[in-house]
Design goal:
The protein is an alpha+beta fold. Among the domains are: 40 residues, no CATH class; 51 residues, Signal recognition particle alu RNA binding heterodimer, srp9/1 (2-Layer Sandwich), CATH 3.30.720.120; 47 residues, 2,3-Dihydroxybiphenyl 1,2-Dioxygenase, domain 1 (Roll). The protein is 11% helix and 27% strand. A hairpin with a 5-residue loop joins strand 1 and strand 2. The N and C termini lie far apart (84 Å).
């Protein structure tokens, strides 16, 4: 047909009957019936919803699934194979007296108060507790600290620590001696009890 290009043996493009370009054996793109681009081996082609799908030897599709038809991002995979942004370095609790709070938790968990650690500068407004399990608790001084009030949604707990114990009654007595305040004993029918530390943060003693 006059005006049409036919490819040579080395590869080129020739139009189809509708005037569209069809790739030679060397690979390329050709439009689908709907006008979308479909690749040859080693490229990408759009799916029905307009999303990119890889062909053999091409780019890898989304590991966590394709976007929805609305264009929303796929959900992150909920598995051990998910790539973490980082690791949990510490948990920080606010209070009016960081050193006193660190010593309180040492009485409950053991460990070493204010061990030298290049990650933190110790001082009047910062104390640490390195626990034998490898966890580090940090305590930050806040002069106008407003402690959470258990059961008050206006001053919620936001977070709390669960401390596993073998003997709940014995742990209860030791916690009170260290300065804890019992908030909820569960009427003796539960395997955990709720307390507040000296700065007002709630925590639980939980029978293992």
């Amino acid at each position: 047909m006059i005006g049409e290009n036919e490819s040579t043996a080395g590869g080129g493009n020739r139009p189809t009957a509708g005037g569209e370009n069809e790739p030679s054996a060397g690979g390329g793109n050709r439009p689908t019936a709907g006008g979308e681009t479909e690749s040859t081996a080693g490229g990408n082609r759009p799916t029905v919803g307009g999303e990119t799908e890889s062909t053999a030897g091409g780019e890898t599709a989304f590991a966590g699934g394709r976007p929805s038809a609305s264009g929303a991002e796929p959900a992150l995979p909920d598995s051990d194979d998910a790539v973490a942004v980082g690791h949990l370095q510490t948990i920080v609790l606010d209070g009016p007296d960081p050193l006193a709070l660190a010593r309180f938790y040492r009485a409950l968990l053991g460990g070493e108060v204010n061990r030298p650690d290049r990650r933190w500068s110790l001082g009047d407004d910062w104390a640490t507790l390195h626990i034998g399990t490898g966890l580090v608790l940090c305590f930050q001084g806040v002069p106008d600290h407003r402690p959470p009030q258990w059961g008050d949604p206006g001053r919620p707990q936001q977070l709390h620590l669960d401390i596993g114990v073998t003997d709940l009654d014995r742990a209860h007595e030791r916690a009170l001696t260290a300065g804890a305040v019992l908030l909820d004993d569960g009427d003796g029918r539960r395997s955990w009890r709720i307390y507040a530390d000296p700065a007002g943060h709630p925590f639980c003693l939980v029978r293992d």
